[in-house]
Design goal:
With 178 residues, the protein is α+β, with helices and mostly antiparallel strands. The chain has 4 helices and 9 strands, in the order E-E-H-E-E-E-E-H-E-E-E-H-H.
């Protein structure tokens, strides 16, 4: 199965499933669907950023969250977040364990019409990037991420440019510790 053959749940304005469609159809028609973004933090408080592979169909070569991805049809947000951690950066969680839900973003143009749950996950260990998904990854201090996004916003995915200021504000407020 290719990426364009993946099946996603199509949702309404309340994020309730109303049907299913292929990835290709969802993106071509701008249908509302679901995704997760996980921001992974090391013990020093740095966040892992990924530079998306040039093979990606959307936003190739742009910087993004530590890992992100669509929910498969019938999948819930928490399961997708744990799956994406393993698939994209090799962080495997025990069965039934998922990263912590942090905040939610409603579907909009910047998210590609995705309802997004953003997760926060502390990690003190290696990461192994999936080369078809990610060119490379880098640990960056949150203040430096904010500086870089402000300086060269075109280098970042639209969804990340929406999510990062919300995450940075929560970090500044001490909402989470790494």
């Amino acid at each position: 199965m290719t990426a364009t053959d993946e099946w996603f749940d199509v949702v309404n304005e309340r994020d309730e499933v109303v049907g299913r469609a292929t990835r290709r159809e969802v993106h071509a028609r701008g249908l509302w669907h679901r995704a997760v973004h996980t921001l992974v933090f090391d013990p020093a408080g740095r966040v892992l950023l990924q530079k998306r592979s040039m093979l990606k169909d959307l936003s190739p070569g742009l910087w993004d969250s530590s890992c992100s991805g669509h929910l498969d049809a019938g999948e819930d947000y928490d399961t997708a977040a744990a799956r994406e951690l393993g698939e994209e950066i090799g962080v495997r969680l025990a069965p039934g364990v998922c990263p912590r839900r942090w905040f939610r973003v409603s579907a909009c143009e910047e998210t590609g019409w995705e309802f997004v749950w953003v997760y926060h996950h502390p990690h003190d260990g290696p990461v192994v990037i999936e080369e078809r998904e990610i060119q490379f990854a880098e640990w960056v201090a949150p203040a430096e991420v904010s500086r870089r996004v402000a300086k060269v916003p075109a280098d970042y995915c639209p969804s990340f440019k929406l999510i990062w200021p919300l995450a940075a504000a929560r970090l500044a407020a001490g909402e989470v510790t790494c």
